[in-house]
Amino acid sequence: MEEAAPAAGEAVGRVLGTQAASPLSFWVGLEPGKVVQLDDVVVTRRDVPGYGPVLVAGVVTTVEARHEGAAYDSDVFLIADGALPAAVVEVAEVRVTRVEPEVFVPPLPGAKVHLAGSDDREQALYFDVMDRRIPIGMGRDGRPMYANFDFLDGTRGAHVSISGVSGVATKTSFATFLLYSIFNSGVLDAESANTKALIFSVKGEDLLFLDHDNLRLDEGARAVYARLGLPARPFGSVHVFAPPRPGDANGVPHVSARTQGVSSFYWTLVEFCEEELLRFVFADADDERAGYSLLVGQVAARLKAWAEPVGDGGAVMVRGTAARTFADLVELLSDQLQDESTRQQWTGAQTPLGTVNAFLRRLRSAVRPLSPIVRGDLPFYRNHTVSTSDAQVSIVDLHNLPERAQRFVVGVVLRGEFHRKESSGTARPLLFVVLDELNKYAPREGDSPIKEILLDVAERGRSLGVILIGAQQTASEVERRIVSNSAVRVAGRLDPAEAARSEYGWLPPAVRERATIAKPGTMFVAQPEIPVPLAVAFPFPAWATRPAEAAAPAVAKASSGDPFQGLPGVEEDIPPF
Predict the structure, then answer these.
(1) Looking at residue 207, what is its pLDDT?
(2) For the chain, what are the domain ranges?
(3) Which of 432, 449, 531, 445 minimizes the C-alpha distance to 480?
């Protein structure tokens, strides 16, 4: 077990008198041979008459070194040669995070400044008042950093916004680690088994092996998990949902590396009509600005009223015409809307032919992307819905679908889960939704059915127990209300132009600059209780993050007389790794 740090840390310098000190920030002159770095936690004390000793704690935000006594830039060469006397001086700016007790007086010049020991660090970063805290990574001092779970589960706040450059900021990796910490830190107590996570995966098959050990996990990484108080193991309960292979008559899931614990998802034409899913075919923000947006609702209502099931494959009969594929249904609508004798029955009013044609052009363009997931030719009795009840973590694999089909799936699945939580009448158990590329589904400009749902989640999800963990490359392009409703904000590596946007005002200027050079695995986490963002490094994943890292799952030993117990079923194959 790691030894506790001393209550009072090492003295590193004194409060400067040449720079003004305030209750909010001050400068420290470092003693010769002493070093502090960005993000170090330091403390100083002052005796205040009538109050006693007052702790002033803060985080180092700037470190500077200069020659004291040099007047010109060229003096550096003379000083280095010993021809000009000068002293090397290092100073650090400290942003105050906590004053205890709350007597807001500045530290006095000359007062000693110490690196924070264990107790002082807990106070400085408010860890001592977090009744339910979860580890979010290691600090620069090699000790655990925490987030207050009250700001994640809806007690005092909810939702997480993660921003960063694609491929470098490790947004998805941090989101999965955050989920892992929530599930394994003990903050959920008895609710842990029933708390669920729904992850939409768009990056290949990298997220399909969360329940497999990572072959690259070494002893050093295991030691980090131990210091964080977490077990170094994969997720325990994972179910993957994937679309059927295009053209496959049996609806086999369209995945290649994983074959166990994978189910196909799709919607029958009966469900498409009964649940009025047509509006999610037009889920682009441009569709809402087009003149046919009202027509979409009218046609969806007619399909709900007139469509009748045919057979057991999910096909429908609409006004005497059968449709067994999505292409059939689109052709049926095209014939009905182009026929002057039937058009008004579908539109409910006089609708310009140009509007109808624009609607049909957009609808026909959806045939190819949506045909694999809107079906009337597969057995209706088969389980084909995305459900979070089968496992603790449900992964919806979207990477094999075109972008338009991805929008459809995200919108329909989110609506279904949100309505399920609404009808349950209770916020518990919690449902965490991880959605990458949030700027695509909830852009700042325009409206769409998916954006409406995500806004509902951001504004009402806290009371319903639906927690959004959204990730995006550019927070400046995401709907403001979604970002502003996120209690916890995280930034990884940022593009310099993006870092200058006002949406990152929660990052101090020095941290903004650092975010442009941050290495993968380093995140800056802001939460309401702590005045400055915490720089954390989360550990190497204990679960496989790509097929090549996945260890074969352990086969359960037979505990009965059945010699075949624990072997793959009829429809399952042993994974090819």
Answers:
(1) 87
(2) 11-125, 158-265+385-549, 269-371
(3) 445
